Each structure stands twice: as structure tokens, then as C-alpha cells.
């Protein structure tokens, strides 16, 4: 049986070498139905967004302190802010706004290794909401139901990198009526609020552009993956990291010639993905991975191993048609699953992936381009309009409990409010930052 599998896979790879060499990849396939319509949709004229002007300590000064934030996988919060400031959907008149945006850079507090620590995020967000609710009337009309926030942490507005702690703390209470734009998406999870807009992690468009190779390059690698299989430092007993899925990939296929897998990250990583038929996209500490973006951009069929994942822009991108979904429990059968896919189906997936609009929807380019991830977020917001009558509260009505949540979120709140009020009056109050000696785990790279 194993010999048959190898022979079939060899034939399959050879077929791609011939097909792509003869221009097969150049014939892109139109995305059928509503997905194509959404990808081509233009949100301009369908909604208006008011951008709150916050003190620079919430955004620009944080970035100035550590410009590395511009390049990590959570950078969408920064580029979404920049995009909205110059977007045609922006309105300077809040009375005509459909949506209100509060630019807080909650992931720009980095360790020496460049990984974001989320511990200050709840206090920053509480302070920002206190500020806008004290100086503008719009939050109080809805308690945030017509506001949206970009929260690209591992577990969104739960603001913790460890899943157990994130579940325990839950979504920040004061954001529970707002719309959240986040990378995290997993069905039936406390950190995924109903109505959230799931976006891809940030991948530097210019960097990826410089690694493009000829479309006629043969795809001679059958299955490709680079990354961790075990996170020994944070999961010494094994089995918890990636719920054991990555370990199962390594244990079952480390010696399989069809699988080009390793922990090493070569300088030819992007080029190698463009030479591969399938690219593994397993969960890490969180269900999503930057490999999902990279695979789509480089035309490598994503093999998604993350049970119950909610994928970016799922109402626009036909993930079932372009990807392969493998249940975590079925990882030991990965070779059989992939070699059993008919060549004509693989070719169709590749033609869909070659569609420029598909790639564009996964990126946050600067400057913005039609159909990109920025516009897909706006499309998501536009589709939630008009706001229903339940969005607006009656005078004096309250739904949210501002004092709810972990004690650690509440202790410094009075200090934050005092400092912000003083800043508005032009006063100066000395303060010091809280320090944390905690290790960031992250989604697993």
C-alpha cells in the first residue's frame, strides 16, 4: 500500500510539473456566486466611519517606542488606523457616522524577542472607552453597539495569550456590545463574539512581493511545512501545544519522502512555498497561523488543521473550494487524505488560488488597493447596516457593567482616568509603567 501511495504521489507531482510548465497556472478561475461579488464589492458610499482623535499615547507614541510593531502578525491594528484616516468612508461629522472607530494599539508592547504582551491592553482599552464616553455622546447612546475595535491578539478581546486564562477572563466586559475585528476565530469559543469580523494576520506585502518567482516554476514539493512541532519551553510534557496535532505530523511523517517538513526556517521559505502543492496550516497555541496568508498568496493549497476554525472573510472567500480541511484526529492519515485528492480537483483549487482578487483580500497593502483586506473589513461593517432599533438605548438605560471583570483590570483604572482628565486640561502628572515578568507564548511560529 505504501509503495502505491508513493507511486501515485510521484505521478501527481509529475503531472503538476508538466501542467504548470505549459501555462496551466496562468488560466485563473473566476470565483462563482456571491463570493466573487463580495470580493469585487466597493464599500465606498455604503457606510461612513468616524475616527476618534485620541491622545497619541494610545497609538502613535506606543509605535514610536517600538517600530517593530509595524512588522509583526498583529500589525493590522496600526495599518487599519492609517487606512481609515485617509479613506473615502471617513467622515469628520460624527452625526452622520454609521460606525465609530477607536484607534488603540493594544499589541504594541513587545518583549525583547518582538512578541506582544497583552497585559496592559485591558487597562488601555478601558481608559480609551472612558475617554470617548466622557468627551463625546456617541458611545453612551449605544454603549458601543455602533463602535468597532481592532483587537488582533491571539484570543482577541480576551487579552491573554494562554487559552485557559483567556477563557477565564472572557471578552473585556465593556466591549461586549461592540463589533470586534480580530484574527482569532473558533466556533463556540468565549473569545469569539457573535458578529465579529475575522481578518487574516498581517503579512508584509512588500516583503512577500520581493520573493515572487515565475508562475511557470514546477511545483515539485508535495507537502511543505516549516515551524514548531513541540513547544518544549512552554509545554514540556507535550500534547497541549497545538492539541498534539503538530506532534502527530512530525511523528508520522518526518521520514516520509512526500513531506518536506522541518523546524528550520530557510531563507528560501517563500520560494519553497511556491514550489509546493500543499502547505500545512496547523493550529499552534491559537487556531490561526500566518501560513494561511502565505499559502494563499503563493498559490500553495492550504491544508487547514484546526477544528472549528472560523476563517478570515469566510463570507467572501470560498475556503472549502481552495483549501483542504483535515480534522485534528485524522492527522495520522494525512498522507492518504492528500494522495487521494483527484488531480483535476487540485488543479481547480490552484486556478482559484491564482485569482488576483483572492490574494488581494488577504493583504493590508500600503497604499490600500481595491478589494484588499481593508475593504473586506469595510464590506463586513456595511453588511451589518442599518443598525436595528435595539442598538440605541433609552435615556438613562444601561446594559454594560463597567466595574465587571478581573480585579487586575480595575485597580489602575482610577489612575488612568485621572491622568487622561489631566491631559485634557493640559496638566502633567508623573507616572510609571507597570512591568511584567511573564513569558509570551504566542500562536506557535
Automatic annotation (TrEMBL):
Domain Exostosin GT47: 46-341
Organism, as annotated: Malus domestica (Apple)
Transferase is among the record's keywords: yes
Signal peptide (UniProt feature, chain positions): 1-23
Subcellular location: Golgi apparatus membrane
Keyword Transferase annotated: yes
One CC-aspect GO term: Golgi membrane
Official protein name in the record: Exostosin GT47 domain-containing protein
Keywords from the UniProt entry: Glycosyltransferase, Golgi apparatus, Signal, Signal-anchor, Transferase, Transmembrane
GO biological-process terms attached to the record: glucuronoxylan biosynthetic process; plant-type secondary cell wall biogenesis
InterPro entries: Exostosin, Exostosin_GT47
Amino acid at each position: 500500500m505504501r509503495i502505491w501511495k508513493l507511486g501515485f504521489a510521484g505521478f501527481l507531482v509529475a503531472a503538476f510539473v508538466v501542467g504548470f510548465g505549459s501555462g496551466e497556472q496562468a488560466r485563473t478561475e473566476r470565483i462563482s456566486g456571491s463570493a466573487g461579488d463580495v470580493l469585487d464589492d466597493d464599500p465606498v458610499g455604503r457606510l461612513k466611519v468616524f475616527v476618534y482623535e485620541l491622545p497619541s499615547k494610545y497609538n502613535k507614541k506606543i509605535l514610536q517606542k517600538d517600530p517593530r510593531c509595524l512588522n509583526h502578525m498583529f500589525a493590522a491594528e496600526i495599518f487599519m488606523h492609517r487606512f481609515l484616516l485617509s479613506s473615502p468612508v471617513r467622515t469628520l461629522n460624527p452625526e452622520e457616522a454609521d460606525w465609530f472607530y477607536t484607534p488603540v494599539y493594544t499589541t504594541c508592547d513587545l518583549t525583547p524577542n518582538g512578541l506582544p504582551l497583552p497585559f496592559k491592553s485591558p487597562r488601555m482599552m478601558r481608559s480609551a472607552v472612558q475617554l470617548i464616553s466622557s468627551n463625546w455622546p456617541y458611545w453612551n447612546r449605544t454603549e458601543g453597539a455602533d463602535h468597532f475595535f481592532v483587537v488582533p491578539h491571539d484570543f482577541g478581546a480576551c487579552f491573554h495569550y494562554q487559552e485557559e486564562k483567556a477563557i477565564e477572563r472572557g471578552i473585556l466586559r465593556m466591549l461586549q456590545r461592540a463589533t470586534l475585528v480580530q484574527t482569532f476565530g473558533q466556533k463556540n469559543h468565549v473569545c469569539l463574539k457573535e458578529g465579529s469580523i475575522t481578518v487574516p494576520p498581517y503579512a508584509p506585502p512588500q516583503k512577500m512581493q520581493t520573493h515572487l518567482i515565475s508562475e511557470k516554476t514546477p511545483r515539485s514539493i508535495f507537502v511543505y511545512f516549516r515551524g514548531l512541532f513541540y513547544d518544549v519551553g512552554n509545554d514540556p510534557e507535550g500534547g497541549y501545544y497545538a492539541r498534539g496535532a503538530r506532534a502527530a505530523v512530525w511523528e508520522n511523517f518526518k521520514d516520509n519522502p512526500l513531506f518536506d517538513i522541518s523546524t528550520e526556517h530557510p531563507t528560501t521559505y517563500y520560494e519553497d512555498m511556491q514550489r509546493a502543492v500543499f502547505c500545512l496550516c496547523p493550529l499552534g497555541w491559537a487556531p490561526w497561523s500566518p501560513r494561511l496568508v502565505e499559502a494563499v498568496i503563493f498559490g500553495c493549497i492550504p491544508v487547514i488543521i484546526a477544528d472549528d476554525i472560523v476563517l478570515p472573510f469566510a463570507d467572501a472567500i470560498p475556503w472549502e473550494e481552495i483549501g483542504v480541511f483535515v480534522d485534528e484526529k485524522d492527522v495520522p492519515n494525512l498522507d492518504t487524505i492528500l494522495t487521494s485528492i483527484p488531480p483535476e480537483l487540485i488543479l481547480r483549487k490552484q486556478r482559484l488560488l491564482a485569482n488576483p482578487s483572492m490574494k488581494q483580500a488577504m493583504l493590508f497593502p500600503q497604499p490600500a488597493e481595491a478589494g484588499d483586506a481593508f475593504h473586506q473589513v469595510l464590506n463586513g461593517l456595511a453588511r451589518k447596516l442599518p443598525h436595528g432599533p435595539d442598538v440605541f438605548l433609552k435615556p438613562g438605560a444601561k446594559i454594560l457593567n463597567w466595574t465587571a471583570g478581573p480585579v487586575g483590570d480595575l485597580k489602575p483604572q482610577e489612575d488612568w482616568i485621572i491622568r487622561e482628565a489631566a491631559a485634557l486640561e493640559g496638566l502633567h502628572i508623573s507616572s510609571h509603567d507597570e512591568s511584567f515578568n511573564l513569558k509570551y507564548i504566542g500562536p506557535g511560529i
